[in-house]
Amino acid sequence: MRAEDGADGAAEPPPRVPASANSRTSEAGAGWECGAPGTFNALLPDRIPGFSWRRPTILWRSRNDVVARLFGDPADAIRRRCVAALRERGTPAAFTVHRSAARFSFLLVGDTGEGDKSQYAVVPALLSAGAGTDFMVIASDVIYPAGDAGQYPAKFFRPYKDYPAPIYAVPGNHDWYDGLRGFLHVFCDLDADCSPPPWRGPLSFVPRLFWRASGTVERSVLAEARRAYRGAPGQQAVQPGPYWAIDTPSLRIVGIDTGITGRIDRDQGAWLREVSAGPKPKMLVTGKPLYVDDQHRPCPIEGGGTVDEIVRDPAHHYVAAIGGDIHNYQHYPVGLEDGRVLHYIVSGGGGAFMHATHVIPRTRVVDEGDFRCYPLRGDSLSRYSRLYGRWLRLPRLFELSPREATAAVQHRLGIEPGRGYDAPAPSARARFVAGLLGVPRGGRPRPRFARLPVRKLPQRFRSELADWDTPPFFKNFLRVDVTEDELRIRCFGVTGCGDHETSPPCEDEVPIPLR
After folding, report:
1. Do residue 274 and residue 339 come from a single domain?
2. What are the phi and psi torsion angles at 109 (to 5°)?
3. What is the mean pLDDT of the chain?
4. What is the value of pTM for the model shown?
5. CB of 418 within 8 A of CB of 24?
6. What whole-number distance in Å separates Cα of residue 454 and Cα of residue 438?
7. Is 398 found in the same domain as 327?
8. 463: in domain
9. Looking at the 3D structure of the chain, how many domains does it have?
10. What's the whole-number mean pLDDT along residues 32-54?
């Protein structure tokens, strides 16, 4: 599919944010002290769709994750069938959207669709910092818990009704729990057969019995939601497929579909190698990040090779790789043997619960001084300590202030904290809580049995301890500005405080030369 879109000229710049107004310099910048309540509450529907990971029905609807990991991920076979259907209706093999502007801007937001306060809290800041952008990309998990088409009106169309430009997406594992049927209908205008192929083997009856079939697609309901919330001509777009490229004169943005278990099929791998060829600078957008929590996850390709091998190849000229799935912000500027620097970024804080950053060890992938994360490890530990204090009804034992938590992180990891405090060594209680909640000692995490569940348990069990609906939310999104000479990525933090909605704090800024 070829689509000519975009106008020449520089995009409108985002609001200037004072350097002092972020989490690295003050507790107020982190959202611990709100001068005014967030206006996002006025955006909420009269009745918020019920959503809690504590509900057995929610966990049951997400069961395809377990089935895929135990008996094999059918995403590759389903995707091949859907891609064949797209090509039969005339979509060219390149799966590329063409835009004519060399200077443009776009938003990137990951893991959005819970449909509750934590998603809506992102909207005012996103609209403010995203003023003048040409399009938005959602990286992973558009709809929780299971990608149903019926959830799109409340969790996609309505929240982003005031964003005036097109929205593209790459699917996440939760979108695949529906066999990708809802995603394909909304983003690709395709209603395909998304049933899995037959499983083989003596236990094949087990996945056949437990696999959750795709939900129904009520075309009239989705059409009415699109018309009511995102019906303006400038908001319309049909992307070529579940994986795609957006080609511009200065940058090619390549989006891949990593299914449920974080791999791509043989045909998508061949397409990725083809679309990655040539001297034009490129950025990868993926449902699963290639570096996360100081670990390398290169993303295998069916038949051999990995996505990261393609990204690192100097002949392909990638400058950045951005993934969702993990609900925070992490930035690893990795130096390669040929002297280039590749910027690996995690940006999954677009609306779902927060994944802890305090469990990230002192980085070995890059120098700790070059690593950035949001929320800061100390803020993450403070937030989780309050959650556990409330959940276990032991607030006096567990709850740590941001200052206490930062001192404990500094003590255990041996790093300079992101927000400097002139504080004494942490108390024995703070060190004890930090150990229980998973702060590693130095560069090595403690054994799993010695910690309370924070990051190691599967999401369907841990997320109930990591969701809240009051500031600070510690969500994030990216604004990407592109010229012929430079790519500039800015991570904006979302606290939920009213005083941060029109000028959201800039938590990281990554300028990347393109020439």
Report:
1. yes
2. -135, 135
3. 90
4. 0.92
5. yes
6. 7
7. no
8. no
9. 2
10. 82
Exposure string over 395-410, b if 16+ CB within 10 A, otherwise e: eeebbbebbbbbbbbb
Is 88 in the same domain as 151? yes
Q: Do 152 and 44 belong together in one domain?
A: yes
Position 113 scores a pLDDT of: 87
Token pair of 105 as six digits: 């801007």
- Mean pLDDT over residues 115-128, rounded? 94
Q: Answer whether 146's CB lies under 8 Å from 64's CB.
A: yes
Residues 132 and 218 in one domain: yes
Q: Are residues 417 and 325 in the same domain?
A: no
Q: What DSSP assignment string belongs to 246-277?
A: EE-SS-EEEEE--TTTT-B-HHHHHHHHHHT-
| Cα–Cα distance measured from residue 386 to residue 316, given in angstroms and rounded to the nearest whole number | 46
User: Which pLDDT score is estimated for 19?
Assistant: 45
Say which DSSP state 313 is in.
-
Q: Which tokens hold the place of 485?
A: 């000479």
| pLDDT tens per residue across span 330-365 | 999 999 999 999 999 999 999 998 999 999 999 999
Instruction: Verify that 398 and 489 share a domain, yes or no.
Output: no
Percent of the chain with pLDDT over 70: 90
Q: What's the full length of the chain, in residues?
A: 515
Q: Domain for residue 360, yes or no?
A: no
Q: How far apart are CA 428 and CA 350, in angstroms?
A: 35
Residue 149 contacts residue 223 (beta carbons within 8 Å):
no
Least confident of 153-167, 376-390, 466-480, 496-510: 466-480
Task: Give the distance, in angstroms, between the CA of residue 276 and the centroid of all CA atoms in the same chain.
Answer: 22
Tokens of 459: 């999401």
pLDDT (0 to 100) of residue 56: 75
Tokens of 261: 């278990």
Name the CA dihedral angle for 192, 197, 203, 208, rounded to a multiple of 10 degrees. Answer: 20
> Is residue 364 one of the residues assigned to a domain?
no
140: domain CATH number is 3.60.21.10
Q: How far is CA 156 from CA 105, 123, 160, 444, in A?
A: 21, 12, 6, 40
Distance CA 216, CA 222 (A): 11
The CA–CA distances, whole Å, from 188 to 87, 171, 191, 224, 234 equal 12, 12, 9, 17, 17
3-state secondary structure of 122: helix
Calculate the alpha carbon distances from 351 to 126, 324, 444, 475, 485 in Å.
Answer: 11, 12, 30, 7, 32
Report DSSP letters for 57-109, one per residue: HHHHHTTHHHHHHHH--THHHHHHHHHHHHHHTT--TT-EEEE--SSEEEEEE
Structure tokens at 332: 């690893």
Q: What angle do CA 408, 411, 415 make, to 5 degrees?
A: 110
Give the domain extent around 446. Answer: 385-454
In a domain, 430, yes or no: yes
Which residues are 441's β-sheet partners?
444
**pLDDT at position 459 over 50:** no
Provide the pairing of β-strand 167-170 with 135-139. Answer: parallel
238 close to 188: Cβ distance less than 8 angstroms? yes
Strands (E), 297-452: 318-323, 329-335, 341-347, 372-374
Are 47 and 167 in a shared domain?
Answer: yes
Angstrom distance (rounded) from CA 183 to CA 176: 8
